[in-house]
Structures
1.
Amino acid sequence: MIPAHNTSRTLAACLDSVLAQSRPADEVIVVDDGSTDRTARIAHGYPCTVIRLAPNRGVSAARNAGIAAATGDVLFFLDSDEALGPDSVAAALEILDADPRCGCVHGIIAPDPLFDDGPVERYKTLHAYWWRARGVGEVETAFFAQAAVRREVFERVGGFDETLRDSEDLELSDRIAPHFTIVLTDRIVARHDEEHRLGALLAETFRRALLLVPALRSARRGGRGNLTANSPASVATAAAFFAALPFAVVAPVLPVLALLAFCAANAGLLRFAARHRSAAFVPFFTGVHLLAHGALLSGAALGALRMAAGAPTGRAVPGRTEPGR
């Protein structure tokens, strides 16, 4: 099931990857979520069912529409800005068949983008691959960009929260984890067309961080832990760096020491970036990674303040849409 909003750039590659699976899908459903480009026309050119939502209602509503239309016992979710590895569907079904307790199995992002649009996108895909690949195994967080879910999961816990346009994965994971096992596997892999503009990447990181503190608090209340993209040491040293910046004039050594600590906290990731790209790419990678942490910290702080004040955090904003879905 593929939710799609204005993804004429990537949808053909996405559908081509679905049709090339070693274990063919029994049905392919594209939910066109109020697109204004050629998304619907491209989808109609493939052997799939096309559902039209209007106006744009967000990825949660699109996925729920696909769930309602699907007839199978296992639903495979794939974002329209991704191309799935050829054995991914077969691997998902094999993992689900092997463990009746497993309600959801999801995969990782390939280290190279679907379409290479520059260094910011290369940073994003490398980081996305790194933290997911290190988390492979039984987890308590699911990401539904490439995930297979038993229908009985939705019958028990309900569908996606349609008031959420971000962090809907965390919210649904919080309902799934008490009842079903969630598995993250590197046997499901997809190349992703990530954000390639720095400002948009930071804005996306900030927006998604708004629900981070409430999600972590909810998980801890249930005795669970979320799968996170950055280690506590990485977040703490980034916070120390930004806290030290106002004192750089009188004590320039403080931000330098914090930056070195940040690099040490991310040593494995930086070595991976050097191996996969080049040593020359590492300074750029480090700078963007640090800025992304700044956006993460700002969003999480605002989300925590909103939670403390009893205000909504990360709920749908009329007229806002998610790129790539």
Note: The domain at 2-196 is CATH 3.90.550.10 (Spore Coat Polysaccharide Biosynthesis Protein SpsA; Chain A).
2.
Amino acid sequence: MRSVSAWGCARGFAVALLVAVGVVDVALYAGSDGSSVLPGLGTVWQTLVVVLVGLAAVLWPARRRPHWLTPQVRTAVPALASLLLTAASLLVRGPVVFGPGEMTILLSLLFIAVRHCPPRWALVCGSLDAGALLILPVRGDATLSSDAMGLEMIGLVLVGLVAGLASYLRSMDYRRTVAVSDTRRSERLAIAADLHDFVAHHVTGILVQTQMARMMATTQPQDLDPVLAGIERAATEALASMRRTVGVLRDTGEGAADRRPVGDLAGIAELIENFATPGQGVVLRRDPAVTDDLSHEVQAAAFRVVQEALTNIRRHAADATHIEVVLGQDTGRLEVTVVDDGRGGIRLPPAAHGGGFGLVGLNERVTALGGTMDTGPRGAGGWGVRAVFPARKP
């Protein structure tokens, strides 16, 4: 709240300053003895028009700004009006007086042009504002006196400072936009990986159990109910995982963390309990040294290692009869191992095979935490997945 109020006070001060210097300009012209350079307008009125146009361009509230009042229009029109007044004064030798209001307005418009106009228009509109400011000293007299030369030098310095500051802030805006875009892209990729891991796991389970149900329909119809119950449970969990993931996307409030996809050490036991199909045995061996107070990132990584390994067993080694999951901790490092004795005797349709993205994403996740992951065949047959990473997030 303090920063908002401070910004409001600073903005109010800037508005008051611009209005004040505009009034000074009008007062200077009212005190000059020159004649009007634009037919039909007195000396005061012709200056008042230029000042009011510039003030409107700078101070018009963004929320009430019409769609046609683009940064290009805002910065070009007042500069053209000032240039027109200067050109007219040179033609008729009108009043030479110009005040700080017009200079301040043109500098403000130069800042807006460089920072907010599209790239090509920024050069055009910025040049118009800078040119209108730099030729003010010759208004009414094309000869450059020593005073006019001094004002030109001051104008050049001011133009350089304002344009440099606006360019720097524009570059910072661009960097911020790129950073936000990169962050959103990485978040989308992470959410896509989460959705892939959870849904692929459940859908693969549905496919395997459906195959079993078709085989049992003719030979063991009385034993179909547990298999169908497993299919129903897997489908429900897949829908719940998608709902949680979408909830994270839609809700950025305090409740978002409560609906994030499940992924911790406690969830591994439930994952294993719901994994086995008839004829399979899944064993979880957890070292007592492995506690539940590990960081969420580490627990999520351990959960994903087990989940991806079990999903690949369903895809490529559904004939495995013994699957073992081991959680161990030693010297500050958590070790997760999943082994099976499958021979690949039962195959899923080619369309159900993964594209290798699961293991790639999993390896990236473990590596990001400072760990390593190894996969490969076992000497006694079957396949093994082993991941080791620091028990604490680096």
Note: The two ends are 35 Å apart (CA to CA).
